[in-house]
Amino acid sequence: MTAPYEIHRGTSPVILAFPHTGTDVPPGIADRLNDNGRILADTDWYIHRLYDGLLDDVTTVRATFHRYVIDANRDPAGVSLYPGQNTTGLVPETDFDGKPIWKDGQAPDEADIAARLRDFHAPYHAALAAEIERVRATHGVAILYDCHSIRSHIPFLFEGKLPDFNIGTDMGKTCDGAIEQATLTVVEAAQGYDSMLNGRFKGGWTTRHYGRPATGVHAIQMELAQSTHLQTETPPFAYDAAKADRLRVHLRDILLRIEQIAPDLKR
């Protein structure tokens, strides 16, 4: 079985997390997916490629398993991040369009979910927590930047078109205001793009769980509309190098700015 995570250890105070770029689905689980599920449509396509090389010697932690195995950015207790709104759970039963992803009678039961928590979700978060603690011990502060993407139009989840940059800090609770402001400054000045702070996406479980500014750990989520870097948001979900290169300029600016802020955030 593929290891549930990949780590690159760096010396920067910034950590990049990639909970949803993995496409590995073990055979015993893949056999239970229906034809719709096997498309793996809800992958955060190419996000680890998009951020690659933007910040020198940054630490990265990437889940290799697909979110249909188990969602690494959901509360392990199964509590909804957005009560009262359509969303997908710890182990999704549907895709982002509300369509079933499992064969009839093959949806995961409680035992399946417990096994996947043990084998995938817990190891990924143990690795991420260890890197956060290592970076904080080195710098006196750690800034977790959680990297995501999603289709720009998903009526099941939100109305209209999603902004290009969607910043989540749980209404300012998960990071120092200077980090939030630095990120906003870049995206609001980025010509040809629109942005939103704490709109439909306020930060997932990763951001909310680890972001504790009083302890020296700051977390911010960036959810990018996939129209900013894909040729098409439908299969084959091809990477658009020209779009991506334009976008990477702004992402690099964000990461450099928040890295420069880090020394001022020491407790």
Could you characterize what this model shows?
Keywords: Plasmid. This protein has six helices and seven strands, in the order E-E-H-H-E-H-E-E-H-E-H-E-H. The protein is an alpha/beta fold. Helix 4 (177-189) links the parallel strand 5 (165-168) and strand 6. The protein is 30% helix and 15% strand. A seven-stranded mixed sheet has the order 1-3-2-4-7-5-6, with helices on both faces. Helix 4 (177-189) runs antiparallel to helix 6.
Defining traits:
N-FG_amidohydro; 267 residues; single chain; HutG_amidohyd; plasmid; 6 helices; alpha/beta; 7-stranded mixed beta sheet
Summarize the structure.
Keywords: Plasmid. By secondary structure, this protein is of the alpha/beta class.
Q: Give the overall silhouette.
A: globular
Radius of gyration: 18 Å
| Low-confidence residue ranges | none
Spatial ordering of strands, largest sheet? 1-3-2-4-7-5-6
What share of residues are in beta strands?
5-15%
| Strand runs, count | 7
Q: How many individual helices?
A: 6
Average pLDDT reading: 94
Structural class assignment: alpha/beta
Protein name: N-formylglutamate amidohydrolase
InterPro entries: HutG_amidohyd, N-FG_amidohydro
Pfam family, one: FGase
Keywords: Plasmid
Fold blueprint:
Elements: E1 5-8, E2 14-18, H1 27-30, H2 47-51, E3 59-63, H3 110-139, E4 142-150, E5 165-168, H4 177-189, E6 195-197, H5 205-210, E7 217-225, H6 241-261
Parallel strand pairs: 2-3, 2-4, 4-7, 5-6
Antiparallel strand pairs: 1-3, 5-7
Helix pairs in contact: 4-6
